[in-house]
Amino acid sequence: MLLISCPNCGPRDETEFHYGGQAHIAYPENPNDLSDREWAEYLFYRENTKGTFAERWVHSTGCRQWFNMLRDTVSYDIHSIYAMGQPRPDTQSGLAPGAPTASAPTSSEGV
Ligand SMILES: [Zn+2]
Predict the structure, then answer these.
(1) How far is the CA of 10 from the centre of ligand 1 (A)?
(2) How many angstroms separate the alpha carbon of residue 41 from the centre of ligand 1?
(3) Which of 49, 61, 91, 99 is the most core-located residue (most Cβ within 10 A)?
(4) According to the model, what pLDDT value does residue 103 have?
(5) Of 74, 82, 75, 29, nearest to 55 (Cα)?
(6) From the CA of 21, how far away is ligand 1's center (Å)?
(7) For 34-69, what is each residue's pLDDT tens digit?
C-alpha cells in the first residue's frame, strides 16, 4: 500500500487516489491536421517504463485535485510529487523545488 502525499491534503492512503496515466502528454496543437494513426498514437500509445515514470494522479476522495508523481514502477518508491504544468523534475537532484516530500525518504544522494 502506498502512502501518497497530496500537495493539498498531505499524506493519505493510496485508496483515496486514482491513477491517471502517463504525465506530460501534450494535447496536439492542431488535432484536425493529424492522420488517424497520429491521433491514435496520441490517444492510446504510452510508454511502459521499467523504472522511474512520470504519471498523473487525482485525489478523488479528498480535494479532487490532479498532480504529477515520479514513481519507480519496480520498487514503488515515490521520488517526487509536483503540480500539473510543472516540468518533470530532475531525478538526480532530488525533489522539485517546493514539492512536498515523498512518503519514503531516500538515502542522501551524491552531492
Ligand atoms: Zn488532496
Answers:
(1) 7
(2) 31
(3) 99
(4) 45
(5) 82
(6) 18
(7) 999 999 999 999 999 999 999 999 999 999 999 999
